[in-house]
Design a protein that fits this description.
binds flavin-adenine dinucleotide
């Protein structure tokens, strides 16, 4: 049985960010952290890899420069309903940076190791048992004991299932496809392709599936794999309209890809759930706190990388306080989270999600994305982006 002070279960962005923030604000605790990760880096993680400005800003505060990771910069993001809508640009810089998660997570893990924090790869956690004096973590390679545990093992993680087995969760369905940056030649009449669709370095979000009871959108991002230009397509459904009849999730994806000249059946479809944030979610039990998708990602877009990095910053403050006081009840974590800039944006996004995706009429979505552009811009800048400026 191995003894540690802080065990972080999962070496994705939330677990690594928790460790890096602890190293920054409580360096005396850094040597007392161990991260357990079931895979070996670089490991695959299904994700479109869109990094918003908040992710970059949190990394900069950790003195990390994400431009070291292979990436594609997106100059324009289109938010559309049935092919038309509003465009967001950020003069002189990119709006979105697209990375591949195998490369990004391996880079972040390397930076974490360079700061002196131990990461054990290839260890799968099987059970998490908190009791009054410590937490026992059972793995496929023996048991570990720690003063406290951080559950950073993602949407399907074991930590939440062990410590909160009966809590209801809100989960989105997501499908993703990687395709060449141009569709096969002769696949369609070029005159039919919407202007500026290809080769523009732009990203597209189209909310046309909402009236079909798919409470989300279809996306299309530029990306790269080993330096080769590709496009990442996908469909996101919060499941908020799941009590109505819906087409198969791949149908709107196939429809949108066809509009750009691709046949969905030519490509491999991969799926993974995203657990999303709701203010009702429990975020800790005594001796165990959760971060990242283990609590919940942004419900509106399923955007979770900046959010995972932000959870790490807030959790590190809570952990520092708990060691200072010798009290591992984590009673104040939910309040700390709710009051933080991260908690505020998540709550705002949850309200926006429950409104916009349930007002599913075609005329409403048409009005919102095509006619109420200043309103959508205001909401995006005030509540969705730039929250990390206020993150302490
Ligand atoms: C299809 C898809 C597209 C997405 N696109 C975007 C996007 O463009 N932009 C964006 O911001 N977000 C996106 N997301 C969301 C984003 O991927 C997640 O929110 C983010 O990865 C959450 O980080 P995390 O550290 O909480 O969890 P994860 O990244 O899931 O990391 C969890 C880690 O824990 C490890 N682990 C799991 N179980 C165990 C175990 N039992 N023992 C030990 N280790 C374990 C895993 O191997 C993994 O390394 C997307 C998600 C999906 C599914």
């Amino acid at each position: 049985m191995l003894q540690h002070d802080i065990l972080i279960l999962g070496g994705g962005p939330s677990g690594l960010s928790t460790a890096l923030h602890l190293h920054k604000i409580a360096p005396h605790l850094a040597s007392r952290i161990m991260i357990l990760e079931k895979e070996h880096y670089p490991r695959q993680k299904l994700c479109a890899g869109g990094l918003v400005v908040d992710a970059e800003r949190i990394l900069q505060h950790l003195h990390l420069d994400v431009s070291e990771v292979p990436h594609v910069d997106v100059e324009k993001v289109h938010f559309e309903f049935e092919g038309k809508g509003l465009t967001i640009r950020s003069p002189g810089t990119h709006v979105l940076r697209v990375i591949r998660r195998d490369e990004f997570d391996a880079w972040l893990a390397e930076k974490t190791r360079e700061s002196g924090i131990e990461i054990r790869e290839g260890i799968t956690v099987k059970n998490v048992i908190p009791d009054e004096g410590c937490v026992t973590v059972e793995t496929d390679q023996g048991d570990f004991r720690a003063q406290m545990v951080v559950g950073a093992d993602g949407s399907n993680g074991i930590t939440r299932r062990c410590v909160l087995p009966n809590e209801p969760v809100c989960t989105a369905r997501v499908l993703e496809v990687l395709a060449p940056s141009l569709p096969p030649p002769n696949s369609l009449n070029l005159g039919e392709v919407p202007a500026g669709r290809w080769g523009s370095g732009a990203a597209f979000f189209d909310f046309f599936p909402i009236p079909q009871n798919i409470a989300g959108y279809v996306w299309d991002f530029p990306t790269q794999i080993n330096g080769e230009s590709m496009r990442c397509w996908g469909v996101y459904d919060t499941n908020l309209l799941s009590y109505n009849a819906r087409p198969a999730l791949k149908e709107p994806l196939a429809q949108e890809m066809k509009r750009a000249g691709y046949e969905l059946s030519d490509y491999e479809i991969q799926g993974y759930p995203i657990r999303w944030y709701s203010p009702q979610n429990t975020v800790s039990v005594p001796r165990v706190i959760l971060v990242g998708d283990a609590i919940g990602a942004d419900p509106f877009f399923g955007e979770g990388i900046s959010i995972a990095l932000g959870y790490g910053a807030v959790a590190a403050q809570e952990i520092r306080e708990s060691f200072r006081r010798g009290d591992f009840s984590f009673r104040g974590y939910k309040r700390r989270l709710a009051r933080s800039a991260l908690g505020q944006t998540l709550t705002a996004r949850w309200i926006i999600t429950t409104m916009i995706y349930t007002l599913k009429w075609r005329w409403f979505q048409f009005l919102l994305w095509r006619l109420l552009k200043p309103f959508v811009h205001f909401v995006a800048w005030a509540f969705v982006l730039n929250w990390s400026r206020r993150l302490k």
